[in-house]
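Hi support team,

I submitted a single chain yesterday and got back a structure, but I'm not sure I'm reading the token output correctly. Could someone confirm the output below corresponds to the sequence I sent? I've pasted both exactly as they appear in my results page.

Thanks,
R.
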Amino acid sequence: MLLNVVPFKKSKLNPFEEIKSTFEDQLKLVDDHIKLKLSSHVELVGEMATHLMKTGGKRLRPLLTICSSEIFNYKGKRHINLAACVELIHNATLLHDDVIDNSKSRRGFKTTNAIWGNKSSILAGDYLLSRCFEMMVDDGSDEILKILSSVSSEIAQGEIMQLQFEKQVDMVEKNYLDIISSKTASLFGASMRVGGCINNRSNKEKEALESYGRNLGIC
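Hi R., thanks for writing in. Yes, this is the structure output for that exact sequence:
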């Protein structure tokens, strides 16, 4: 018996790179917005912010916010500001992580704490969070402010849980999942949910978006 075979479209890009390429222009707007918001009259802040942007990263969390907005054909500009917010929260946690872990390199670059010391790195992380909260207030949505402020608290609790269990080689699965759900998956979930919020979707739809993001974060 003969079968008709339909070949898949050949692409040099993997699925993630293909999605990222699709929204390249919007991700560039997110990066530009972050650079604008991190500008400061304090010279050291500017140097550290420039270094942080230079280290790059996959921009996965802001990409999720953009994608969840595009699902509903969003036509405004709020998603750019909010995508920048979730990336700032993420990078703030990385700055604090590097201090806690005494990391010397990340993404092929020296870490901020390796260059300027732990004190400056912690304060830089705090600066990122404070700027992020200003941006959330500017957005004007109490719902989104609550989501992103709550997830910032959840991430911090995940970090503390990790410290609590770091010397336990026989950690049970539940504790491990609790840690990664708080430390990583929570921001993935919030990144997705934001797209539903700015499109005024139903609670059921927003919960579905958040569930997808959390499960992706756990993976």
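A quick pointer for reading it: Strands lie at 105-106, 109-110. Let us know if anything else looks off.

Best,
Support desk
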